[in-house]
Amino acid sequence: MTSEKRASAFPESFLWGAASAAYQVEGAHDADGKGPSIWDIFSHQPGTTHEGTNGDIAADHYHRFKEDVALMAEAGLKSYRFSISWPRLLPEGRGEANPAGIQFYSELIDELLKHGIKPMITLYHWDLPQALQDIGGWENRETIEAFEHYARLCYEAFGDRVELWSTFNETLIFIGMGYFTGAHPPGLTDPKRGIQACHHVFIAHAKAVRLFRHYQAQGRVPTSGQIGFVNVMQPHDPITDSPEDVAACKMADDLLTHWLYDPVLKGEYPPHILNMAQLTWGVPEFAPEDEDLLKDNICDFIGVNYYKREWVAANPDTDNTKINTTGQKGSGQAFGFKGLFKFVRNPESTYTDWDWEIYPQGLCIGMMRLKERYGDIPFYITENGLGAKDPITDGEVVDDPRIDYLSGHIAAAEDAIKQGIDVRGYYPWSFIDLLSWLNGYQKQYGFVYVDRENGLARKRKKSFFWYQGVIESNGATR
């Protein structure tokens, strides 16, 4: 942590922002005609989340968005990344739209613009309408058409005021934990079904990109608008230089990075991994137009969500997909798939209470590796943050570890810019404390504390004022 003033490499147009997601922050889970999402159902099932926490109320942003946007303006935010709740707009996932849902997001966008804050919309941040899950969810190609219908509704309702869009957030997580480890809805452990569901997500993305560009050509969304895709960026390094660990690390890269970035940035899957999947499970199955859809609809930018690096080792014996959701440091076990790879702790590294390595340089290294594979693509750092149990001292939230964490990562982002990476914005996760999916409300990320014992009162943390200074100086003071 430092207040040292230095020359800044961040361009004047750089978007200093913050991020959130609908289910995690809005609450109002059944208000004003909203339909249930898969998370509304899943989080109420016994044993699925920490201490049975759910997003029924969350931070109640739905009812308090003007107060929250005023805080964003006070912090000096240039942009705010948020997701739209699909079932709030379309309670059945398709069909008739809910006017109250459209009105909420329209008013939120207007409030942001009134304060000079540029909206960045994520169309899908995991809260699939339960009505679509009831017909098979992402395994059913009807969900692709429903997503295109939903995207059209959003472009038509908000496209006149919003330039920055992304289709999906973190396929690695909602497919990986939904279909491979069973920790997220729909709670399956079936690779064949997961691979096909993942393919349908990429086709839905391509159709939404195609529609966006069609609307651009018609002048129905800004010609300056851009549409991208948000992925986990999780650099992998082998724990030793043994051939076995190096090979395991390459496999982790292929399965957890290239499989998820190639379709949206190259318009195809890594051929050897596609061949392996189809020989092993017979998936993904392609419809006749799928290959061309991927090739013809490369996205305009990539959003990267960076929290940690993973050290990789060969894995002849471990089959464990459980993760630390308690915040008890060291309670996590080596996550891995037998015969492929496993993630291991490096005793020389520093870790959070949730066993995530703190490695700021990985933000720059990860983007450099992506540039090497995909060329000169624009980057937005769409998530980066420290999940912690914040200390409260004499009524003040003194979150110095968060300031240290973010300061180091901003330095890494600046280093990336100096090395020629086209980084256009930085969106820490999150602006306000919110529901952390499986971890409940104990894992805090925000610049703004939500007092759950005092009517959800908002309180600015120490990091709020620090980030205010970072933005005011365009990254020169941190």
UniProtKB/TrEMBL annotation:
Q: Does the keyword Ubl conjugation apply?
A: no
Record-level GO cellular component terms: cytosol
Which molecular function term from Gene Ontology is one that the record holds? beta-glucosidase activity
SUPFAM superfamilies cross-referenced by the UniProt entry: (Trans)glycosidases
What residues bind substrate, as annotated?
Answer: Q24, H125, N169, Y307, W429
According to its UniProt entry, one GO biological process term is: cellulose catabolic process
Known catalysed reaction(s)? Hydrolysis of terminal, non-reducing beta-D-glucosyl residues with release of beta-D-glucose
Q: Which InterPro entries match?
A: GH, GH_1_N_CS, Glyco_hydro_1, Glyco_hydro_1_AS, Glyco_hydro_1_beta-glucosidase
Is Hydrolase given among the entry's keywords? yes
Q: Which residues form the active site?
A: E170, E383
UniProt keyword list: Carbohydrate metabolism, Cellulose degradation, Glycosidase, Hydrolase, Polysaccharide degradation
Q: Which Pfam families match?
A: Glyco_hydro_1
- EC numbers for this chain: 3.2.1.21
Family according to the record: Belongs to the glycosyl hydrolase 1 family.
Entry protein name: Beta-glucosidase
Q: Give the species.
A: Photobacterium proteolyticum
